[in-house]
Amino acid sequence: MDTLLAESSIDPSLNQVRETNWITKLFKWRLHLEKIKKVKPKALIYWLYSVSYFIVLGITSVLCSAIPVDLIIQSFQTSSRIAINTLIIIGACALFVLSAFVLYLVRVLINRAHLQDIPRIYIPVSSADITEPVSDYIHEELIRCQRISKTAGPKGIIFHDGMYHEQKGTSSKMTVLPNDLVYDNVVCDIGQEVKYRGKIQLNDSRFIEPKNKCTLKELILDEYDEMTDKLNDYELTTMKDMVGLYEKLRFSGKPITHHEFERFLRLWSQVEKTLVNEK
Predict the structure, then answer these.
(1) Which residues are 207's β-sheet partners?
(2) Amino acid 31: pLDDT
(3) Domain residue spans in the chain?
(4) Which residues pair with 200 in a beta bridge?
(5) What is the pLDDT of residues 184-193, one digit of tens each?
(6) Residues linked to residue 163 through DSSP beta bridges, in sequence order
(7) Of 207, 190, 191, 188, which Cα lies nearest the Cα of 199?
(8) What does this protein do (predicted)?
(9) pLDDT digits over 208-232, tens only?
(10) Sign of CA pseudo-dihedral 218, 223, 226, 231
(11) Torsion angle of the four alpha carbons 12, 13, 16, 20, in this order, in degrees rounded to the nearest 10
């Protein structure tokens, strides 16, 4: 006692170290008790079942092996008749173990075959298909993915040059475009209709068929020269703008933007109406 008092008087920090160690131990025990409390009844039942299964299996194996072991020991001390009986018993035990192993193997193979019948893309449709922890985990992951998609996604609408891809809020009041539409294909088709078919259809019943083969630019400019006196300044300007924009989109080699394509469709629609009204 005097020694301890002397040590504490020499080094007062020893008491603080001892108190800290006791607090740490108590904290660890508290965490251990909380983990034990968090063990779910199903997990506890499964653990007890596994332990009891191996205990019963061990006791049964010891009881069943008592007679064969006894006969084997006696066979070394008695006549050959007991030795023959020993061999018979050992053979029966070996046959039983082999049969049990075969039955267990067949059971495993059948279970795996049934599991393979379940489709890989499995969608649970009822509460009995998956457990509650799995359902909660899936729900949490879906919420997390939704939050990530909103955070990592673009803040505004993105228009891709060269192709229209439908997004939320990208529909225009002027035009309704199909999804994944390639702008260059539409512009080329209008020009190739005049170049290879030799005519251009304005509506269901009316079309323009030039006397000589020409391009779309030449066709529009010819109509422009013929109808200069009949059209107003707005219509003439529209035809000029349409030809200029068509040449730019067709031969510039640059991807067509969404704004340029919508402007081209508006100008082409106005030119068609002008040609239909004047023909």
Answers:
(1) 201
(2) 55
(3) 163-278
(4) 208
(5) 888 888 877 7
(6) 182
(7) 207
(8) Required for growth under high-pressure and low-temperature conditions.
(9) 776 677 777 777 787 777 777 777 8
(10) negative
(11) -160
Q: Which helix (H) or strand (E) holds 244?
A: helix 233-251
C-alpha distances in Å from residue 186, one per residue of 24, 82, 114, 138, 271: 76, 99, 53, 45, 16
pLDDT of residue 133: 83
Residue found by looking up tokens 């000589």 in the block: 212
d(CA 126, CA 132): 11
Backbone angles phi, psi at 207, to 5 degrees: -150, 160
**Terminal-to-terminal C-alpha distance of the chain:** 123
264, 245 in Cβ contact below 8 A? yes
Nearest Cα neighbor of 82 from 67, 69, 72 is 72
Handedness of CA 18, 21, 23, 29 (dihedral sign): negative
How confident is the model at residue 211, as a pLDDT? 65
32: its two tokens: 């251990």
**pLDDT-derived band at 194, boundaries 50, 70, 90:** confident
Q: What is the pLDDT of residue 11?
A: 47
The tokens describing 85, both together, are 């009986």
CA nearest to 164, candidates 186, 148, 131 = 186
Tokens for 258, please give them.
């969404």
To the question of pTM greater than 0.85 for the whole model, the response is no
Helix 183-197 and helix 216-226, axial crossing angle in degrees, nearest 10: 70
Segments in 65-200 forming alpha helices (H): 66-75, 80-117, 132-152, 183-197
What whole-number distance in Å separates Cα of residue 110 and Cα of residue 118? 13
Q: Tokens for 104, please give them.
A: 């267990």
Kindly report the number of other CB atoms within 10 A of residue 277's CB atom: 11
Distance CA 209, CA 205 (A): 13
Sequence letter at residue 219: L
Amino acid letter at 51?
V
The share of the chain scoring above pLDDT 70, in percent, equals 68
Across 90-108, average pLDDT = 87
